[in-house]
Amino acid sequence: MPAKSPTGAFARAQAQGEAALRAALLDIAAGLLAAEGPAALSMRRLAAAADCSTTVLYRLFGAKDAITAALYLEGFARLRRRLDAVPRGDDPAEYLAALGRAYRANALEEPKFYGVMHGEGVPGFVPDESARAAAAASLDVLREAARACVEEGVLRADADVDEITDTLWAAAHGVISLERGGHFPGALGEERFRTLTRAAVSAFLP
User: Domain HTH tetR-type, which positions (predicted)?
Assistant: First the structure.
């Protein structure tokens, strides 16, 4: 079955409104980045791939460099939606673990965005302070889950919630990066992720 063309995706998104149009264009931009590298993130190249005018792109993004910033923000926005969708149960420890699994799933299902989010996709790109703040906010649900674990006595009462969040994020990103690099093929990636994140949590147990 032939793949759907970017033109079709653009046309469908255009009919759905500006938010859908912007998301579709960012998907196309992420695909170009993955296939052709950072040089493909030009207004002219993206317009050609999406079969739209550069005027549309300038209206939605402002400038070429803004496309990379938009990819960065879109990646974290998708992560936040994924984490927010995790059901909250009665067990705070299981909820924290479920958020970790959702984080890994998002990273593996959105690889084109994940690279931009963590400085791998576009060399030289440095997000500004507001973009970094938005990225940090995407982990608020993880931070609140860690806080609940402290309040419920699952984790140490004197544990710093930000330290817990940063430690779990770092552990998750480290093993995911190795998995994405092909070092943990098949089911091994999930096994290593579970082992490392459990080890990170153990540092904060009572």
Answer: 19-79
Q: 22: domain CATH number?
A: 1.10.10
Burial 11-38, CB ≥16 within 10 A → b, else e: eebbeeeeeebbbbbbbbbbebbeeeee
Residues 155 and 181 in one domain: yes
The owner of tokens 């079955």 is 1
Q: Are residues 95 and 183 in the same domain?
A: yes
The structural domain count of the chain equals 2
Percent of the chain with pLDDT over 70: 90
Contact between 113 and 78 under an 8 Å Cβ cutoff? The reply is yes
Q: Which domain holds residue 151?
A: 65-206
- Give the global pTM: 0.84
- Measured between alpha carbons, how far is 136 from 1 in angstroms, rounded to an integer? 40
> Residue 42's pLDDT is what?
87
